[in-house]
């Protein structure tokens, strides 16, 4: 005989609370993995540059909700560490464009590797079925957060609720 456990649909605020706790724990795990010579603000710059190669200083400042002088000083430190390269714009020599250096890319790859190693050690403690559920939930979260959720996402919700279209 199979026993079905009824679990009410969790409310967004309940899930948000657990997700916030999980995010805080991720920060702790990532802190263990970090031997970073870069601050949190500098890491944000590196991640932005990784995805927006050749971004100009003004656009980077806007992305950081910062001022161009503060952003420039932040980039000065990253350039001194060898993580960022500054180049002049192709159309305007006064424009400064930024890109990751080879050392900056290697640093991010190493940091990700160390973070994933820390995550794997925690995930290995979870039962396989719960890891699978976590993966499914995180994929759905990422899709919703990036706006790439399927066209008929409602069908999935209806199926979970026992309703059909």
Strand content: 5-15%
| Low-confidence spans | 151-165
Largest sheet: 3 strands, antiparallel
Percentage of residues in helical conformation: 55-70%
Structure summary, number of beta strands: 3
Order of helices and strands: HHEHHEEHHH
Number of helices: 7
With strands numbered from the N-terminus, the spatial order across the biggest sheet is 1-3-2
Molecular structure report:
With 165 residues, this protein is mainly α. The chain contains seven helices and three strands; from the N terminus they run H-H-E-H-H-E-E-H-H-H. It has a three-stranded antiparallel β-sheet. Strand 2 and strand 3 form a beta hairpin. Helix 1 packs across helix 5 and helix 3 packs across helix 4. The longest helix has 22 residues, at 12-33. The protein is elongated and about 65 Å long. 8% of the residues are buried. Mean pLDDT is 84; it is low at 151-165.
Characteristics of this structure?
165 residues; 3-stranded antiparallel β-sheet; disordered C terminus; mainly alpha; 64% helix
Summarize the structure.
By secondary structure, the chain is mainly alpha-helical.
Secondary-structure map with pairings?
Layout: H1 12-33, H2 40-51, E1 55-56, H3 57-64, H4 68-80, E2 84-88, E3 96-100, H5 102-123, H6 128-146, H7 153-161
Antiparallel strand pairs: 1-3, 2-3
């Amino acid at each position: 005989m199979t026993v079905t456990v009824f679990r009410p649909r969790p409310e967004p605020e309940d899930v948000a609370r657990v997700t916030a706790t999980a995010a805080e724990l991720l920060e702790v795990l990532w802190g263990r993995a970090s031997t970073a010579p870069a601050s949190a603000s500098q890491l944000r710059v590196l991640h932005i540059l990784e995805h927006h190669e050749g971004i100009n200083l003004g656009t980077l400042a806007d992305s950081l909700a910062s001022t161009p002088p503060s952003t420039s000083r932040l980039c000065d430190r990253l350039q001194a560490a060898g993580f960022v390269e500054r180049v002049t714009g192709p159309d305007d020599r006064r424009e400064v464009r930024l890109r990751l250096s080879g050392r900056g890319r290697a640093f991010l790859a190493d940091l990700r590797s160390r973070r994933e190693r820390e995550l794997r050690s925690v995930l290995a403690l979870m039962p396989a079925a719960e890891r699978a559920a976590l993966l499914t939930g995180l994929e759905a979260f990422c899709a919703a957060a990036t706006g790439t959720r399927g066209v008929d996402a409602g069908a999935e919700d209806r199926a979970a609720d026992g309703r059909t279209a």
